[in-house]
Amino acid sequence: MSDDDILERLTNSQRLVTVMLQISAEDSSARVGAWNLRDIAAHLAATERECYEPRIRAIASGENPSFDIYTNDDTDFSGIQLENALDEWSASRERLIAYVRTLDGDRRALTGHHLKYGDVSVDRYLEIALEHDRNHLRGLERLAGQRTR
């Protein structure tokens, strides 16, 4: 697997989640668990901005940072529009990927310590972000399946 494979998978998963959110947005009552679609989009944008970007930059800087579990589950996203959140998420994901592309293998191999995941490199944190995307995608796929019944 090439170094850029994870970056391509992150780009593709973000696009797929975005499309699924946009398609499902036609139903204003659509929910995945306790969250409406706007909340999911805003949660994804905030997580990228507040967690993945700064943490990956801190790891790559050689700070050997320590991280607690990040959550924004209790955040009130009611003032945010779905499309604005998706635009922000797209822009922050693009910034993150562009930044990681500037890193050499040594920088990508540096680590920080995460309370849940243990020692994490830049690439391991990218995998965590990808799994987060996929978790939300699974919920959106279940929603789409319910809507087609």
Topology summary:
Elements (H helix, E strand, L loop, with lengths): L4 H20 L6 E2 L2 E2 H24 L5 E2 L14 H20 L3 H5 L1 E4 L3 E4 H26 L2
Parallel strand pairs: 3-4
Antiparallel strand pairs: 1-2, 4-5
Notes on the protein architecture:
The chain has helices at about 5-25, 35-60, 80-100, 105-110, 120-145; strands spanning about 30, 35, 65, 110-115, 120. By secondary structure, it is mainly alpha-helical. It has a single domain (about 5-25, about 35-75, about 80-145), classed as Up-down Bundle (Four Helix Bundle (Hemerythrin (Met), subunit A)). About 65% of the residues lie in helices and about 10% in strands. It is elongated and about 45 Å long. A 3-stranded mixed β-sheet has the order 3-4-5.
| Gross geometry | elongated
CATH topology: Four Helix Bundle (Hemerythrin (Met), subunit A)
Question: What is the overall number of helices?
Answer: 5
Question: Which CATH class?
Answer: Mainly Alpha
Q: Tell me about the largest β-sheet.
A: 3 strands, mixed
The largest sheet has its strands arranged as: 3-4-5
Give the quaternary arrangement of the chains.
Answer: single chain
**What's the CATH H-level homologous superfamily?**
dinb family like domain
Q: Which regions contain 5 or more consecutive residues with pLDDT less than 50?
A: none
The chain-level mean pLDDT equals 93
Order of helix and strand elements from N to C terminus:
HEEHEHHEEH
- What percent of residues are in strands? 5-15%
